[in-house]
Amino acid sequence: MKKSEFLCRICGAPANHKCRLCGFHFCNQHIDSRGVCILCSEALCRLCSRYYAVSSCPVCGRIVCDQCSIQITPVVRVCKECYNRLGKPREWPPRELIEKSSEYRLKLGRLVMEVLYQRS
Ligand SMILES: [Zn+2]
Ligand SMILES: [Zn+2]
Ligand SMILES: [Zn+2]
Ligand SMILES: [Zn+2]
Description:
two-stranded antiparallel ribbon, 2 domains, alpha+beta, binds zinc ion
């Protein structure tokens, strides 16, 4: 029977750990105590560290998963921490602002801040 031996996907060293998220094998330098490889941990939600992030919060800039963020428009998700801290936006968004440039993302972040802070 063929011996199963895996190499670390990052450094090529013998890998004795398997990432519980992506299923690839890693050496003990490239996986953390939770069993998550460094590649996955880069992509994990910064709030719960359990799920892959689906979006980034325009207020704090952290990447967050579906569970840890609240959709305030079809295109904007704010993380739960910012949402709890700042409250629900009154009205959102000005429709003409829905575009996809990176400049727009920055502008959007500022607008979210304004909308959140202006609530009565
Ligand atoms: Zn490695
Ligand atoms: Zn992984
Ligand atoms: Zn999360
Ligand atoms: Zn946030």
